[in-house]
């Protein structure tokens, strides 16, 4: 039997309250004998929710925390104000070796800062990256996933050339671990495909990646290539990545609105849409990429998966499965080995 | 009668050859008595094309240039190698006061550099910006335009806080001149709506814009707001703007592909699409924003309009009309007055 993986599941601070996380965990204990879950949060809320459900008590435990991050808290100061917040305690459980991965549907900013404070970074990685999947026309990997990985989407707004290179390495290792793609094609997002295009840090990252072994570097891609899905992993600084990710969300919304508007207005359109419904559902499934399991916060020696704040139980369960998969993979070693090829600080200063 | 405006029309270097520009000019001389056109380019090519057409010779003249920029030329070096290139001569004609605006469907990079070399910058403006329109769900201005203005989209990759503020001022003045919107709402593109969100230069630009009179500053917008069209003018550095613009182009392509694919596959879908066709045309018209007249290169005392390389005669004619409108407006004075409110270099150093 496979060695079971224990997930520290932060149950607090999501849009729908702790119920979804508790339901996800209860169901996982009945469905998966290779997973254990530690529910982290307010026992007064979690206990009664758990009492209503059937679950395997051998695979589930509960860790009470008296504090948690609320949506209105400021991510930069909340961890000082609430030193026993559930996301910090979830990271501590992993740091202490009692669990192997953190999953949360709470504040992204607080999760990134908590992981930075309480978990060890992979040697050679200086800045964390938040990754997300974006829907694409082309499919990716052996499972023909209709989405690509984009990172960073907001953890590191200003990324140096070296940061961009480590993001490429981490994105490649994560895509390999999760989608089973042995050699994901990785590219830098720029304003042109030529090696000299882009700001200085992108040009320098291009040079470093061209010389790196063990990564399938495809050069630069442009904005066009994101919806097309030309490559499996797209690398950008957190500012650019965040704007791009939210833009995709906006495009999805606008298409849904236009379709709804057409539906309301005209009988013939309504009939047309009914006939087209299976096609539209297919497009919407691609757009609804959040059901594919959460955004990894990369750079730490243990996986941290951020599920969307709006996640329902199935999405949180999915995030737990992804976290277990990442924990079982050798992605940390792969990243460490690749990063070791990069010039050291002294070499960079002399270059 | 309105004072006529003369356009220096660079006819060389576009995808479809000089025919489209010559046709556009010939037609304009018959339709518009307030426009004059100087065709700039190789007389051996332009002459025979003109001979085939009917036009008003009182409103059209021809300026021969022995050189022009080819698509394969490197924009950074071509102007040194070809000092008599048509785009340079078109700018010279305007600098000499013989025409009031430049229109080109040739290389964007060469047009930006030629304008920087040969035309005067608006006092206080340090860096040029290339603007483009993006299709939006909400409409804008009194003409209910289904698109917003985005700048910079590639002229200035790294923009300082002050550059971003001048881009906001220029975008506002241009939108007012072209769309007849007396107070366009202008926003900075960032990774959150709060004033403290984004890299240092965006945060500082937010502060400067909040204090500026004569501009309708709406704060920060996120990626989501671009397809929605929350504001009339969106400001970003050239790197971010370029990625965003090309992404919109890519999304349009992918939607067209998905529709074509659905069309080919299934009889019921085909029927559905036929019934929906008027709605789909409407969406495609919004997507096909290039028909709305070209991208202005802003920052110079005379308008420079870059039409898309794929432009046919109607699009080039449209770009000429837009150039004339910009030339007649008081946008240069408006920009000058707004920029004068900004701190001078000395004040910035002391701040």
* Biggest pleated-sheet summary of chain A: 11 strands, mixed
Rg of chain A, nearest Å: 21 Å
- What is the fourth-level CATH superfamily of the largest domain in chain A? Isopropylmalate Dehydrogenase
Largest interface: A-B, 48 and 48 residues
Helix share, percent of chain A: 40-55%
User: Could you say which overall geometry of chain A the principal axes of the C-alpha atoms support?
Assistant: globular
Task: State the oligomer.
Answer: homodimer
Order of helices and strands of chain A: EHEHEHHEHEEHEHEHEHHEEHHH
For the termini of chain A, the CA-CA separation is 51 Å
- Structural class by sheet pairing and helices of chain A: alpha/beta
Find the count of extended strands of chain A (DSSP E, 2+ residues).
11
| % residues in beta strands of chain A | 15-25%
The count of domains of chain A is 2
